Amino acid sequence: MPELRKNIITREWVVIATERSKRPDDFSVKKEIIKTKEEQNLEKSKCPFCPGNEHMTPPEILAYKSKNNFKGWQIRVIPNKFPALSPAGELSHNSVGIYDILNGIGVHEVIIETPEHYNDIISLSNSQMEELVSAYFERYNQLKNKFNLEHIIIFRNHGDRAGTSLLHPHSQLIATPVMPKEFWYEVEGASIYYEYEERCPYCHLLEFEDQDGERKIAENDSFIAIAFFASRYPFETWILPRIHNASFSQISMKEGNDLALILQDVLKRFYNCLGDPSYNLTLHSLLKPEKQAEAYHWHFKIIPRLTTPAGFELGTGMFINVSAPEEAAKFLRESKTEVVLT
Ligand SMILES: [Zn+2]
Ligand SMILES: [Zn+2]
Question: Domain segments of the chain: what residues?
Fold first, then answer.
């Protein structure tokens, strides 16, 4: 019998279609065909994110120097050459008849995670992962008081099905002058929950999942990774900080280092269990936490792109998930965390 589950934050209903359920290992995707050395070199020569091709991108905003190579960089942050939103000019309102328009003010940056074209995030060292989180943190904090920004998202698209256009490992940051709908639902929902329950819904569910354990995937001193009870997607994973904080901008150094560890831990489990699936990693954080500081709780979500939302989802905004979160969690929890790259 399928089950309708309610998201306690957004109050949306999700169908967990257990009768259509696949076994967790049925989701495993085929790995890409290995390219020859010549094909790899050709790809690297055309890649704007590879060392030596820095002239193909706008000048860098931030670079962490390589410890091994004095001249080289380890992480490089650049403006997106084809930005979705542009930092030039002032924000202004306009209208066309009944419609509102804002000019496209904002920020769109690319965080190049490694100089190695084929070195994915799962094979970075601990210190490289810590530097990546540090770059996320630095850019988030440098931008939070600039312009008329309402929201900043940091995200990572991995694989064809996740919408990535360049293979070279990178994340992106987009700052918008308006509050995006999905995020607004979360903040509003958390505020309503807080009004009635007098506590943050994320702290509440974190406490429950920590004790219950059935949907737990991984944990460390500062974070817990869970398969969310009312997941929209198979293997949807939430990474929640144990310490309540509305904004990623306020994390401690210890939390940053623990975040680096758990992000990579979960992604290694995905790789081992699901065969390098496409996924989207997204930061959910309140840019201006003054108002909803008690109600909202920053976190990361990872959505593997194993199924495609279709007519029902697009027509209703209601999702059918063909994998029980409990089974997904068990499968990932029992996975090896050492990765042998093929
Ligand atoms: Zn490259
Ligand atoms: Zn909380």
Answer: 3-333
Interatomic CA distance for residues 239 and 118, integer angstroms: 26
Q: Which CATH number fits domain 3-333: 3.30.428.10, 3.30.930.10, 3.40.1260.20, 3.30.1330.120?
A: 3.30.428.10
Question: What's the gap in Å between 295 CA and the centre of ligand 2?
Answer: 7
Nearest ligand for residue 295 CA = 2
Return the ligand number nearest the Cα of 247.
2
Which pair of tokens denotes residue 120? 């994915």
Residue 4: strand, helix, or coil? strand
Predicted confidence at residue 32, as pLDDT, reads 64
268's CB contacts (< 8 A; 6+ apart) are 122, 335, 337, 338, 339
Q: How far is the CA of 299 from the centre of ligand 2 (A)?
A: 10
Residue 149 three-state SS: coil
Amino acid occupying residue 328: A
* Residue 205 region by backbone torsions, left for phi larger than 0, else alpha for psi between -120 and 50, else beta: alpha
For residue 214, the number of C-alpha atoms closer than 13 Å in the C-beta half-sphere is 9
CA of 287 to the centre of ligand 2 (A): 16
239 Cα: distance to centroid of ligand 1 (angstroms): 28
Inter-residue contact 282 to 173 (CB < 8 Å) = no
pLDDT of residue 34: 75
Total number of residues shown for the chain: 342
Mean pLDDT (10-residue bins), the chain, 342 residues: 94 87 71 80 94 94 81 92 86 91 92 94 94 97 87 95 90 95 95 96 98 97 98 97 96 98 96 93 92 94 93 94 94 84 58
Other Cβ atoms within 10 Å of 117 Cβ, number: 17
